[in-house]
Amino acid sequence: MSRVAIVIVSLLAAACGQEIGDECSTSLDCGDGSNPARICDTASPGGYCTEQGCDWNTCPDEAVCVRFYAASFGNRPCDPATEDLATDMCSIDEVCTLRGQCVPRSSEVRYCMRTCSGSGDCRDRYECRDESLMREHGGEPVPKPGERLTGDLQAFCAAEP
Questions:
Q1: 65 and 34 in contact (C-beta within 8 Å)?
Q2: CA neighbours closer than 13 Å in the CB half-sphere of residue 81
Q3: Could you tell me if 112 and 64 are in contact, meaning their C-beta atoms sit under 8 angstroms apart?
Q4: pLDDT (0 to 100) of residue 151
C-alpha cells in the first residue's frame, strides 16, 4: 500500500466515532481526547457517544441537550402546558415533565443526543424519539432559560425500550 493510501486510511479512521450518537466501546472511541466531556455510554446498545451535563446551547451541531429523570416516580400528576402559569401542582424543588408527572429536579441528568427527523436517521435498535415517544419513553429537550417545552420539539435518537 502506498504512503498516500496509508495516510488517507489513517485520517478516515481517526475521523470515525467522533460524533454524538456514534457507536463506541470506550470513551476513546468518541474523540481525540480534546473534549473530556465526550464519553461512551456503554449501557446503550452498541455504545453511544455523548456528552453528559450539557445545557440548551452546549451540544455540537448534530445534537440536542436532552434531560432524563433517573427514576420513575409515583408523584403527583401535572399539566406541562399550564404548570407555573395557571397551576402549581409541583413544588418548588420539582419539575413537571412532558409525561405529566412532578419529579424532583435533583433526579435530572442531561446528555447530548443525536438529532433526527425520522427513524432512518438513527442506528439499528434506536428510535427517532419525537414528542409522542418522549411522553411514552422519557427524555425531553432542555429549553432555553425562561422558555417552556412547547411547539415543535427537536426529536433525537435514543435506544428503543
A1: no
A2: 1
A3: yes
A4: 74
Q: What is the pTM of this model?
A: 0.84
Domain boundaries, the chain: 3-159
CA dihedral over 19, 20, 24, 25, signed as positive or negative: positive
What backbone phi and psi angles, to 5 degrees, belong to 147?
A: -105, 160
Helix, coil or strand: residue 73: coil
User: In terms of Cα–Cα distance, which of 76, 99, 71 is closest to 87?
Assistant: 76
Confidence of residue 74 (pLDDT cuts 50, 70, 90): low
What cell does 46 get? 452498541
**Closest-CA residue to 46 (of 146, 161, 159):** 159
CA terminus-to-terminus distance, the chain: 45
C-alpha cell at 83: 404548570
d(CA 126, CA 45) in angstroms, rounded, equals 8
Please give the pLDDT value at position 10: 38
In angstroms, how far is CA 136 from the centroid of its own chain? 15
Rounded Cα distance between 93 and 107, Å, is 10
The predicted pLDDT at position 72 comes to 61
